[in-house]
Amino acid sequence: MSMFSERLQILVSKDQRRRLEREAKRRNASVASVIRDAVDAELGGGSRNEKLAAVEAIRELPRVPFLPVEELNRIYDESYTESVLRGIPGLSPE
Question: pLDDT grade, residue 91 (50/70/90)?
Answer without folding.
Answer: low
